[in-house]
Q: What sequence folds into this?
């Protein structure tokens, strides 16, 4: 009887993990190719941009901005997510997001927004 109880418990506990939805299972996650960057707003400690990219349908939404720094040379990759089960028309859609990037102080900053593995949308901003 103990063996049967243990077997049932092991089976129940191992299958319980399969019933939970993780973000990876519930969402599709993708980088968004940036088409343009506009309206740089500069403050002493950050630069904020309106970033525009094209996604395959209107169900995609901004997820996060990945930022790499090399002194005043900053690279940004925009990531989006979409519910896997969402029903959406397959119409190219512009995804707009506002990204605030911290800076270390006064200086000339080069920003590179990912458009593909071999291209980026670049802009220079002077922080005073």
A:
């Amino acid at each position: 009887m103990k063996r049967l109880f243990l077997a049932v418990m092991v089976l129940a506990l191992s299958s319980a993990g399969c019933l939970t939805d993780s973000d990876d299972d519930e969402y599709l996650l993708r980088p968004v190719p940036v088409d343009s960057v506009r309206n740089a707003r500069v403050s002493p400690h950050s630069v904020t941009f309106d970033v525009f990219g094209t996604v395959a349908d209107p169900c995609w939404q901004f997820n996060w901005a990945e930022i790499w720094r090399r002194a005043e040379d900053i690279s940004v990759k925009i990531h989006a997510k979409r519910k896997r089960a969402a029903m959406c028309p397959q119409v190219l859609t512009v995804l707009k997001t506002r990204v605030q990037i911290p800076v270390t102080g006064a200086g000339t900053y080069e920003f590179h927004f990912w458009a593909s593995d071999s291209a980026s949308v670049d802009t220079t901003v002077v922080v005073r």
